[in-house]
């Protein structure tokens, strides 16, 4: 009973901290104040200070993780409403999704091997560039550890969102479709949120690329595992 009450309190605290963080970010648009950055830091500090175990925290908060699936699918609504953009650029978007998926998986695994990281980290990094629901589904087939996968996905999303604008400026990328595709392929949900802040077209393209990259990675996960770790 005590564990249940503690889990419920953690669940309520998570929601309160998140919504307060959103209000704070609306007022001061700073990277460090983003909900995806500040909220996890506050929650980790809360757990450490109060000596609350991960099991007690996640007891009731696991519903928030479950909601990631419906939240990701909700991005399909603006995509459907802007099918004209998709029809106009379907070939370049398809080529971009395939290329981005190959580069993300291969570069992550090869760099991890170059740094002599353990195989479990290599397998977890392989799916870091797709949004969490897809990443967790792919991780079960690739052999990644769910907790590590979730961590790498968040870090990838935050880093891509934070550096995307600077990279686009340096590379002189001005087309909305290109920016949206870049955010969706490299920093999934976090990047898509940033893309919608820039413009509707950027957000729609980012949503589509994020979902297609996720589906492609999940479908190809058994093949990725076989090709990358055939000796295992």
In a few lines, what is going on in this structure?
This protein has about 230 residues and is mainly α.
Describe the protein's architecture and organization.
This protein is 83% helix and 0% strand. The chain folds into two domains: 1-52, no CATH class; 68-230, no CATH class. The longest helix is centred in the last third of the chain and has 29 residues, at 200-228. The radius of gyration is 18 Å and the shape is globular. The chain has twelve helices and no strands. With 232 residues, it is mostly helical. It comes from Mixta tenebrionis. Keywords: Membrane, Transmembrane, Transmembrane helix.
Outline the fold blueprint:
Layout: H1 2-27, H2 35-50, H3 54-66, H4 68-73, H5 76-81, H6 83-88, H7 90-114, H8 119-125, H9 132-142, H10 146-170, H11 176-198, H12 200-228
Helix pairs in contact: 1-2, 1-3, 7-8, 7-12, 9-10, 9-12, 10-11, 11-12
Radius of gyration, in angstroms, nearest whole number: 18 Å
Number of helices: 12
Distance between the termini: 45 Å
How would you spell out the order of helices and strands? Answer: HHHHHHHHHHHH
Q: Which residues sit in consecutive blocks of at least 5 with pLDDT less than 50?
A: none
Tally of structural domains: 2
Mind describing the biggest β-sheet? Answer: none
Strand percentage lies at: under 5%
Average pLDDT, to the nearest integer?
82
Proportion of helical residues: over 70%
Structural class: mainly alpha
Shape, per Cα inertia axes: globular
> How many strand segments?
0
């Amino acid at each position: 009973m005590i564990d249940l009450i503690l889990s419920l309190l953690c669940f309520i605290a998570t929601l309160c901290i998140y919504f307060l963080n959103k209000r704070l970010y609306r007022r001061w648009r700073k990277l460090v104040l983003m909900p995806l950055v500040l909220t996890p830091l506050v929650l980790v500090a809360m757990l450490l200070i109060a000596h609350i175990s991960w099991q007690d925290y996640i007891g009731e908060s696991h519903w928030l993780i479950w909601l990631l699936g419906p939240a990701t699918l909700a991005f399909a609504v603006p995509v459907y409403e802007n099918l004209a953009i998709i029809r106009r650029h379907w070939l370049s978007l398809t080529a971009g999704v395939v290329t981005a998926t190959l580069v993300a998986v291969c570069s992550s695994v090869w760099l991890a091997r170059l740094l002599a990281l353990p195989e479990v980290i290599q397998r977890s990094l392989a799916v870091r560039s797709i949004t969490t629901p897809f990443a967790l589904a792919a991780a079960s087939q690739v052999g990644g550890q769910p907790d590590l996968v979730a961590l790498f996905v968040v870090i990838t999303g935050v880093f891509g969102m934070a550096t995307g604008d600077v990279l686009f400026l340096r590379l002189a990328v001005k087309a909305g479709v290109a920016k949206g595709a870049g955010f969706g392929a490299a920093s999934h949900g976090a990047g898509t949120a940033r893309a919608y802040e820039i413009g509707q077209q950027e957000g729609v393209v980012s949503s589509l690329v994020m979902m297609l990259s996720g589906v492609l990675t999940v479908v190809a996960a058994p093949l990725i595992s076989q090709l990358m770790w055939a000796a295992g």
